[in-house]
Write the structure tokens for this entry.
Amino acid sequence: MLNNWFNLLLAPTERPKWIGDSFPVIQGIIIALISLLSIVMVVAILVSPPDSGTGTNAITGASESYYTKNRNKNNLGRIRNLIIICAISIAVLTIIFFILFGIFNMSGAAE
């Protein structure tokens, strides 16, 4: 049953011309977004200061300071959240891109 659904979804049937014309445009937009998010992520990584002193707390038994406990409320936390959001967005957009690439190539729209 699942195989029939995939055949209906990806079968080269009569589709409107705008669908075949819109796939390359959508893929170009997705590539541009991935590139922009990659640049933002690299800049955010280069701007963020190194996280020093957290590895020795387990050995020395030192407790965390107020700064490390409330890290998400300051600029370091915002930069770290920006990096995580960019990485997740890049992963999702890459998956969407390859799904669209597969549909575009299997639909016969490239002829």
Notes: Residues 75-106 form the longest helix (32 residues). The chain is about 70% helix and 0% strand. Residues 37-111 form one domain.
